[in-house]
Design the sequence.
């Protein structure tokens, strides 16, 4: 199973973006306005998101209408962690340790297992599923694996490599990656043993690798003193090279506070440069930075989050009557921003 479309895991939440948008139209919609939500998956027209109460929501029309898709047993309980694999499949773990799985977009959930947390009030868990059956979980400095969708878990590794894991991914049943403060680690035996692929740069305070398949990936780095940079790999993380610069680099003060967006492949990127709370420049490339196309944007206040798929860049902002979404079709060079107000509807 390829990770090519795992773009939802790439969102960098280090800075608040403020975009400029023009020529918007707002389609009518029935339902209750949503105050705030944060997308966790966006592919084709399907968007999964969490609201401020950690309730899982799902939309099938690019975020115009959302429905609550929680298991009935968890409708009034907060989620500890979640993992959305595709348009239909997702897993949830609540604070008591109960794990649920859906294979039909949240219409029906199945309880898979109950994890024992002991006296832990808010344990740290990293969860990843490669397909319907194969999954991995880092918990309490231990790596567990399931072959049946989460019903049973087996311990496969417990050592210092499993401490303070920021991100966990697998490209197939054997090959996977960990992102940690010390650098990027790789396994080729399903998680039993790990080797360090790349040590963290001395000037970085955080590095996170995202792989789209067994070979192609990106490495986001936050530098000491602010600012970010982006490297790419085509050999599974053995070697990395910086993303090519823009033809005319932004000013030094703007470049020091860059924020990056990744579209769902190893070659398409949207890059925004911000200074303070405003976006000053936004660019789009389809060829790993060989050619950059500026996106026509104007300043727009109150933007707090974004999501992106192979077709649209979507930004989320707060308004007096609930949140607003604005989407931009990336395939159309003459496109205009489309504005709509997401609403919550009953299922």
Sequence:
């Amino acid at each position: 199973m390829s990770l090519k479309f795992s773009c939802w895991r790439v969102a960098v939440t280090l800075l608040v973006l403020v975009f400029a948008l023009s020529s918007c139209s707002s389609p009518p919609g029935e339902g209750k306005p949503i105050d705030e939500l944060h997308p966790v998956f966006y592919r084709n027209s399907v968007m999964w998101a969490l609201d401020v109460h950690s309730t899982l929501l799902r939309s099938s029309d690019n975020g115009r209408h959302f429905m609550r898709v929680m298991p009935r047993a968890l409708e009034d309980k907060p989620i500890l962690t979640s993992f959305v694999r595709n348009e239909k499949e997702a897993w949830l773990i609540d604070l008591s340790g109960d794990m649920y799985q859906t294979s039909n977009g949240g219409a029906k959930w199945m309880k898979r297992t109950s994890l024992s947390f002991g006296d832990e009030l808010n344990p740290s868990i990293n969860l990843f599923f490669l397909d319907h059956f194969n999954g991995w979980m880092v918990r309490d400095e231990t790596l567990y694996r399931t072959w049946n969708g989460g019903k049973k878990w087996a311990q496969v590794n417990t050592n210092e490599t499993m401490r303070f894991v920021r991100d966990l991914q697998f490209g197939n049943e054997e090959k996977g990656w960990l992102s940690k403060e010390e650098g990027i680690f790789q396994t080729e035996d399903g998680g039993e043993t790990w080797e360090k692929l790349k040590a963290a740069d001395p000037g970085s305070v955080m590095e996170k690798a995202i792989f789209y398949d067994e070979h192609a990936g990106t490495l986001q780095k936050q530098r000491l003193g602010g600012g970010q940079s982006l490297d790419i790999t085509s050999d599974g993380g053995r070697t990395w090279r910086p993303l090519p610069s823009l033809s005319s680099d932004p000013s030094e003060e703007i470049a020091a506070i860059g924020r990056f967006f990744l579209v769902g492949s190893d070659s398409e990127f949207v890059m925004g440069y911000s200074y303070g709370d405003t976006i000053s420049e936004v660019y789009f490339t389809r060829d790993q930075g060989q050619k950059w196309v500026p996106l026509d944007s104007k300043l727009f206040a109150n933007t707090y989050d974004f999501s992106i798929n192979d077709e649209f860049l979507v930004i989320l902002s707060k308004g007096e009557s609930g949140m607003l979404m604005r989407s931009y079709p990336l395939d159309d060079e003459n496109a205009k921003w489309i504005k709509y107000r997401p609403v919550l509807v009953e299922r």
Q: What stands out?
A: Confidence is low (pLDDT under 50) at residues 1-28, 247-258.
